[in-house]
Write a structure and sequence with these properties.
Structural class: mainly alpha
Mean pLDDT: 89
Helix content: 55-70%
Number of domains: 1
Number of helices: 6
Order of helices and strands: HHHHHH
Length: 150
């Protein structure tokens, strides 16, 4: 199942380092992969991944909130489907947080508002939340598409 989708296992520490070192550009690579994987597994495509990236940049992240929510919502539905014959979900794969959709939606909106109106400590909290959320979404997709940890 994992060979068909452009998702691969991401080490949490490396994921955070790559996002920070590239000043967030690596996030767009992840977003592209996430949208492509969800499009491949869904009956109705979410959006073309390149268009998703452009809209996320043009809207200063507002479109990203919608895309992340849809990615998690669709991943949740896909994860409920029976696995193909011969595919077994490894016990290493942790199931995503049960309310990840709500965390993505309300947490991202709150984080976006805080980042607009704060500097200093609150801004640092929004960055930490965003990094955690990025890993939580990646982990949810790894669980959904049965991506083995290397």
């Amino acid at each position: 199942m994992s060979q068909k989708y452009p998702i691969k296992h991401e080490n949490p520490a490396l994921l955070v380092v790559l996002i920070l070192v590239t000043c967030g550009i690596y996030y767009f690579i992840l977003l592209y992969r996430w949208i492509a994987a969800i499009n491949d597994a869904s009956d109705k495509p979410l959006v073309d991944p390149a268009v998703g990236i452009i809209l996320s940049i043009v809207t200063c992240g507002i479109a990203t909130i919608y895309y992340e929510y849809e990615i998690v919502a669709r991943a949740e539905k896909i994860a409920r489907r029976p696995l193909p014959e011969g595919v077994v979900r490894s016990p290493e794969l942790k199931a995503p947080v049960s309310n990840l959709k709500e965390i993505v939606l309300f947490g991202s909106i709150a984080s976006f508002v805080l980042s607009l109106f704060s500097v200093g400590f609150l801004f640092a909290i929004t960055i930490l939340f965003t990094l955690w959320l990025t890993y939580a979404i990646q982990q949810a997709l790894e669980y959904t598409f049965v991506i083995p940890q290397e």
